Amino acid sequence: MITQQASFFEPKPTPAPDLSKCHLIYTPKGRAREYARLACNVYRGCGHGCVYCYAPSATFKSPDEFYQPNTRGDRFLDNLKREAAKYAAAGVTDQVLLSFTCDPYQPLDTTERVTRRAIEILHANGLRVCTLTKGGKRALIDLEVFRPGDAFATTMTLLDPDDSAKWEPNAASPAQRIAAIRKFHAAGIPTWVSLEPVLDPAVALEIIRQTHEFVDVYKVGKLNYHPLAKSIDWRAFCTDAMSLLISLGYLRELEPDYIQDIPWGDKAFYVKDDLRAYALDNRAR
Questions:
Q1: Domain 24-276 belongs to what architecture?
Q2: Mean pLDDT for the chain overall
């Protein structure tokens, strides 16, 4: 039997892009994977100087070195364009979280403005963004570039400005962070709050009470890497936090990837694995 052969002139299929060679846009591991499918760190180090920060050890730097941040070099944005184009060619449209080992709206960004250019590059290649920041009103300068499908996230730990200044010396005050969340939510951008680390369970619950009208998602964790963690009743906090969120109309979501795509106005919460171990209803995801 004669079989038809492909014409010499037929176009050859385009090989799939090798995303394994991308390192600026990457898949987080460990605890960070519960927060994002993809991430990108737009700076080296962070000027907020948070006492509890895990990032110095994660990036193999001393705290003094880590708290003196820098840009990622002259070719960072060009290299980001190349990687984002590979994701576009692969048809990936996920959110890219900015950032895990730095803050996209730390004080350095007010002069360097790398975060805005990174967002524009990701958008140009069909990727969505989520910024996770303690920068407060510093983030508002980029509000206009956020699009449907993006998200704005803020780490909230304390409410008293003096307490916050002790733990997070150069981060925006709690009031400024709350003001920024309000602005983004009012603009129709989905918002979420990272309640991690939890430094005072009672304050964490009060943060929920004061912000629930303009926060779409809460991601609730605990305190790690600090001696204070041993003094906190995590089972009681987990129970109280879940009960409060449910009473306010939030649905518990067990799948971390799904909760990244909660639409504006929907209400959901996710309990991170470290804290979920203390839940009375300790269901597997």
A1: Alpha-Beta Horseshoe (3.80)
A2: 91
